[in-house]
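Sequence in, structure out.
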Amino acid sequence: MARGRGTQYTAGRHATEWILGQLYRRHWPSRLVDALGLTPRVRVEHHEVATPRWPSGARTLRLAFASDLHAGPTTHPSLLDAAFEKLAAANADAILLGGDYVFLSADYIDEIAARVARLSAPLGIYAVLGNHDLWADDRAIVSALTAAGVRVLVDETITLPAPFDFVALAGLDDPFTGARRTSAPFADDDRVRIVLVHAPEVMQLIEPHPFELAICGHTHGGHIALPGGVPIVVPGPLSRRYAHGRYDVGLGRTLLVSRGVGATEVAVRWNADPDVLVVDVSD
């Protein structure tokens, strides 16, 4: 049963999670997938984002991003290990985490927190929450991540530490199940503006407003996709529109959507390999 503050947790969702919790005991789905050699390889997707608002002479800001880790019965530990190895190898100035750290139970957050605690980044590690976190127990998840050295942002805009104190980072609540913000994340802000959020549905909330980069996950790239990565089923119209990859959303704004790392109801991914994003922001 959900213990978090997330909305949209229906009776049908509760029934589905109870059944899966009983069915997936001993984590046999992820173990079977791994035994069959079907645990996918974690890709690193590199992006360069240029903005004329970047100060002359300032060096490039490198961000590493992972989302949808989904610790639980359908995500094999080796997949989590691979994702965190990619994050560590990125040599990023800041590490960003896009939510959905667990599946079915907040108890699995310890698997994520232990791995996060071994990461380091000069400017820090920042995180937002996803729909599964808000359903499971957001307070327990925030507590575990905070103890591991992560700053969890819930509708909060901060300034990155020097030498990137001209960059504003807005960490927004999940647009599907979280608190619905009524104001723009950046008001009369002359800094370089980066949005960290769980799902591309955030575009419904910030579409008229300026930013340089928004980065999210949630879609899994469809999780099961046709050859070429064309998703079959992705929940929500904006998640279908922005299923995976890089999008120019106008006014000099870039939206990056990760396929995420782990699994939920189905342990197997097909034509939608997990990824970690490495993003270089400069002029």
